[in-house]
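Minutes, project huddle
Topic: does the predicted pose make sense with alpha-D-mannopyranose bound?
PN asked that the exact inputs be recorded in the minutes so nobody has to dig through chat later. Recorded below.
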Amino acid sequence: MRRTGALALLGVIAHGSLAASKGLPRGVGPEFVKFFESKTVFPCISNPSITLKASQVNDNSCDCPDGSDEPGTAACANIDPLSPEQPLPGSVTGTTNTTAALPGFWCVNAGHIGSYLPFMYVNDGICDYELCCDGSDEYAHTGGVQCENRCDSIGKEYRRLEEGRRQNKERSAKKRRTLVKESRELRRRVEVKIANLKTEVRDLDAKKAELQAKFEEVERSERGKVVKSEGRGGKLGVLVGLAKSRVNELRNTLDKIMDQRDDLQDKVDQLEDILTKLKEEYNPNFNDEGVKAAVKAWEDYAAGQTSETKGDLADSDIMEVLKEDSETSGINWAEFETGEASDIDVVYNWEAYLPAPVRDYVHQKLNFLRGWAIENGILADNPTSGGESRLITAAREALDSASNAHAVKLGQLEEEQRELEKDYGPDDIFRALKGKCISGEAGEYDYELCWFDKTTQKSKKGHGNTNMGNFARIDKEFVDEEERLDGKGLGKGQRLVLRYENGQGCWNGPNRRTDVYLGCAETDEVWRTVEAEKCVYRMEVGSPAACEDVQEPGVRTKDEL
Ligand code: MAN
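Predicted holo structure (C-alpha cells), as shared on screen:
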C-alpha cells in the first residue's frame, strides 16, 4: 500500500527546491512557501484567524485544525488525507474529518523529482525511497535508521526509463500518424469508388430508360407482324425443313400411285374375267378368225402370267413407308428441329464461356448488334419457341441485362456509402486496421481479435473455436489502473473500448461478448484476456491507434499558423 501510494504521487509534483532553501521550515512544498515566510508568526493556512508563534511550526505538536503547522513532522498525520482514518485522542479537532491543508511532507529529492510523502511515514524508521530518494523523511533516525541519499542513481534510472517511455511514445505517435495517413488513403479510395459508381449508376439508368423505350417501340412495331412459329434458322434448320417436306411429298405421291395401282389392278381383273369368260363360252365351230386369235392371245397371256414371278415388294412394306413419321416410326423430325442451334444461337452460345461481368457487357452489345442485323435483314428474324420474335427477345434481354447491371451497381454503391459513413474512431484511424487480426494466449486458449470483425477463443487442445462476439461499436470508458513497468497497461484515463457482441451462446447463459480496452503501444498486441464473468470477456490490447494525437515535431497546426 505504501509503495503504491507513493508511486501515484510521484510525478504529480513539479520540480522545486524553494522549500529546501534556508530559513524555511522542513517539509514545506514549493506551492506553500508563501505561508511560511514570516519569521515571527504563523497563521494556520485554512484558519488564518488562528495565529501561532513561529516556534510552534514543526514542534511535533498538531496545533492548527488543518495540520498546517506541522509540515515536517508526523504530528498532524491523523488529518493527513492520505492516511487511513484513525481517530487520534488529543488532536485539536478530535476527529479525522478535518481537511488537511498540506498534501504531505515535501522531499526535495535534488537530482531527481521532488514529491510529497504521506505525513504518517515521516520518521517511521523506514526509508521511503520511492518518494523520498534523498532519505530526508528519516531525519530523526528513528530506531537508528540511516537513509542515504540515493537520488543520483534513482534519478538516473528514472530518466533512463522516462527517455525510453518518451521515445516509445514518439515512435507510437509516428506509427499513429502512418495509420492516419493509411486510413485517409483508404477513405479517399472509397470516395473515388463511390464517385465512379455514381457515374456508372447514372449511365446505366440512362441506358435502362433508353432500352425500355427501345423495347416498347420494338414491341409496338412487331405486334402487327405475323410471326412464324415453326422451323428454326440456320443452314441445318433449312435443310431439315426441306427434307421433311420432300419426304412428305414423296410419301403422298407413293400413296397416290398405290391407289392408282389398285384401280388398275381392278380393271385388269375385270378384263381377265371377261376374257376368261370369252375363252370358255365362245363357239369354236364358228369359223371366226378374229375370235380364235383373241382366245389364242389370251391363252398365251394367261400362260405367261402364271410363269412370271411376282416382285417381292410386299404391301405391308409399302404401308410401313406410308406411315406418318413419329418418334417410333420413320424419321423423328422433332429431334432435328429442336436439338440443333441456329446460326444466331451459335453466335450467342459462346458468351457462356466468358467471365460473368464480361458476359453481361458482351451480351448487351450483341443484343444491340443482333437487333440491328435483324432489322437490316442480315440475320434471320427467327421466332423463339414461345412465338416471340427475335427482335423483341433481343430488346427485352438487352433491357433485362441493363436492369440487372443497374441493380448490381446500385447495391455496390449503397454498400460503399455505408462503409464511408461507418464510425472508424478518431481520425477514422481503425479504417487502416479493419480486417487485420492479432492474438495472444491465456490459460488453455488462444484469443484472437480481428479489428472491426470478431473476437475468437481458440482451444489449444484442438476443441474448436468459439465466437466471443462480433464487432458492434466504439465506446469510451474511464479506467484507473496502475502503471506497469513494461508499459503494457491501460494506465489511468479515458480509454477507447471496442464492443464485440452477440457471439456464440453460452451454456445456460447469454451470448458471449467481449470488451476490448485499448491502450497506447507501438505495435498491435493482445496484452491479456480474462473472462471477467461467465462468457463476458475483457481484452486489453495495445495499439498505436489508441495513442494520443501527438503532432509531428516541427509541424505546426492550423491554429498556430
Ligand atoms: C467454454 C469457454 C469458456 C466458457 C464456457 C461456458 O468452456 O468458452 O470461456 O466459460 O465455455 O460454458
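Observations noted during the meeting:
- The longest strand covers residues 465-480.
- The chain has a mean pLDDT of 83.
No decisions taken; revisit at the next huddle.
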